[in-house]
Amino acid sequence: MGHHTPHDVHAAGWRGERRAERFYIDRGYAVVARNWRGGGGEIDLVVVRDDVLAAVEVRVRSRGEYGSAAASVTTTKQRRVLGAIRAFVAAYPEWLADGYRTVRLDVVAIDRGRVDVIYGAL
Fold first, then answer.
1. C-alpha–C-alpha distance, residues 35 and 42, integer Å
2. Among 54, 71, 92, 95, which has the minimal tally of Cβ within 10 Å of its Cβ?
3. Per-residue pLDDT averaged across 90-95, rounded?
4. Distances (CA, A) of 49 to 11, 26, 46
5. Within 10 Å of residue 90's Cβ, how many Cβ atoms?
């Protein structure tokens, strides 16, 4: 078993977020916020396209010993992200007023380099 330093984990998370960002941009989404904090939580990415505003939680696992990236989104994490989504929409109501009607939470799970996107995870 190897040991990851906090720097390694932070760097992997940053790379994962950039990879997720590229994934959405390549599909026609615009990134409107990165690492937005509020409501007791954080949203890794907020993206918009057509009538959808999506909050994106990015989870990265470079090894399988702690479970899958998707499984790491605990109910506590879900509550924190939902709080952040509510706070984001309250702080920026224009995103809903400008025609964005659907608000969803997506999870981008990156397991040992493989990217899986779960649209509308909650």
1. 6
2. 71
3. 90
4. 28, 12, 11
5. 10
